[in-house]
Write a structure and sequence with these properties.
Layout lengths: L2 H17 L8 H17 L17 H18 L4 H15 L2 H4 L10
Helix pairs in contact: 1-3, 2-3
Length: 114
């Protein structure tokens, strides 16, 4: 995804919310709650499975559920004026430092345990 695509999505979401006068409800607490609730719906697709895979009857719901998580992430980033591309690059830089290849390859340990 390019930064232009991300900006276009932000603009579309902002327009959608503005046209419906929903921004009045988008305070940080409610945005965070909505993000968490949607993330829980992704998790629900895996509930009661034994093979760690989403049930075949539910997997078709994955795109919509992930889109919901992305939607609320974009709204929260917009509220706090966060450049997600920059934020993710900064986070990846930190992750690369915390998890150097020579210590982390093939391991699931937390960086403090490497």
């Amino acid at each position: 995804m390019t930064e232009d695509n991300l900006n276009a999505l932000q603009a579309r979401i902002n327009k959608f919310c503005t046209e419906r006068d929903w921004s009045q409800f988008h305070d940080p607490k409610n945005l965070a709650i909505s993000l968490q609730l949607e993330a829980a719906e992704v998790l629900e697709l895996f509930q009661w499975t034994k093979d760690n895979q989403a049930k075949e009857t539910r997997v078709d719901k994955m795109p919509a559920e992930l889109a919901d998580v992305f939607y609320w992430t974009l709204l929260m980033a917009n509220y706090y004026d966060i450049d997600l591309v920059s934020a993710l690059n900064t986070k990846m830089d930190k992750n690369e430092e915390k998890y150097p290849i020579e210590k982390a390859v093939g391991k699931s340990d937390k960086y403090t345990e490497l």
